[in-house]
Amino acid sequence: MTTLIVGAHGKIGQRLCQLAVSAGQPIRALVRNEEQQKRLEALGVETVLGDLEGSLEHAFKGCDELVFTAGSGPDTGLDKTLMIDLNGAYRCAELAEAFGFKRVIMVSTRHTDPLDGPEALKPYLSAKKAADYRVAQSPVPHVIVRPGKLTDESGSNHFSQFTDGANNGEVSRDNVAQVVCELMSDPTLFELEFDLLDGEQDWSSFKSAL
């Protein structure tokens, strides 16, 4: 099963591509330009040029599963939030249906209520909430991963769904990528939505509690 990774050149996406290649998992990475393409192809990743604001159909052909880990980033305006985090996710969900994908894995956010978020993040949180709802209502089986506050700490490969004094509601990008890679290797996991934080459980224990 070939997994299309949307957001492959992001901070989580690059980590995920490296893990997938190491694990021998077939992937295709959607990238926006030739510079990104060269970087990922040097790692042994199959790539396809495309843009969430442009044509995407060609990227989906020949794939069976979608990982959506794209984001407009903190330095863009509301226009990009709408086009990437909302409309981009909607379009990918529609194409996953049209191409008969077996599963969609959405990397979202733990903070799902826009009204509880900081003023500057309310448009982003609104976009993510709507995109998650679209994926959850799709006939394509789904998994929605809801990471806490992201850090660049080295991955521990140990996880939790709950905030405690040790993790402070945080999770490393390494650990997020590791969990998504584990999900990709197990097609029996679907119709799941869960928070993800750093913790003490290895993957086997964490999975059994989902």
Helix content: 25-40%
What value does the average pLDDT take? 94
Weakly predicted, low-confidence segments = none
Class from secondary-structure proportions: alpha/beta
The strand order across the widest sheet is 3-2-1-4-5-6-10-8
Helical region count? 7
Number of strands: 10
Pfam families: NAD_binding_10
Organism: Larsenimonas suaedae
Domain NAD(P)-binding: 7-187
Protein name: SDR family oxidoreductase
Describe the structure.
By secondary structure, this protein is α/β, with parallel strands linked by helices. Helices cover 38% and strands 20% of the residues. It has 7 helices and 10 strands. It has helices at 11-23, 34-41, 57-60, 78-98, 122-137, 173-184, 203-208, and strands at 3-6, 27-31, 46-49, 65-68, 103-107, 142-147, 149-151, 159-160, 170-172, 192-198. The strands form 2 sheets. It has an 8-stranded mixed sheet, sandwiched between helices. Strands 7-9 form a two-stranded parallel ribbon. α1 crosses α6 (173-184) and α4 runs parallel beside α5 (122-137). It is globular and about 45 Å long. The mean pLDDT is 94.
